[in-house]
Design a protein that fits this description.
alpha/beta, Rossmann fold
Amino acid sequence: MSSFQIIVGSMLGGTEYVAEACEETLLALNHQVTVHLKPKFEQINSEKQTWLICTSTHGAGDFPDNIQNFIEDLKISTVDLSPVKFMIIGVGDSNYDTFCKAAFDMEKVLLSIGCNEITPLKTLDMREEIDPEDLAQQWLITNSDLL
């Protein structure tokens, strides 16, 4: 089984609940999991790892404050990140024209530095009456054969 690094970008805490639900599901699927609520690039192992990024979007399409340094360090890193596989869950509200922009921007960054996307980005629209944690867990189970 894989070793997952769950990297969380959250301003108000809702995305942390999604990440914790994902952790629960991945553990149930016998994966090793580390959750990073205040991600620091130098503390996240890129060797044979799978990154699950759970992020909301803040302001005018910006990354949440707690993940901004991670993104900047990622962009300037000289580490070979081609072994990294990743999945992204974007949490947002489609009432805004910047719906899940941070998640889509994260996807572009990771692809541009050679990381490998396992499955297309998942968006969770908080505008709808949904249980975001349950939807995230279902998405992981549906894609479990790819993990």
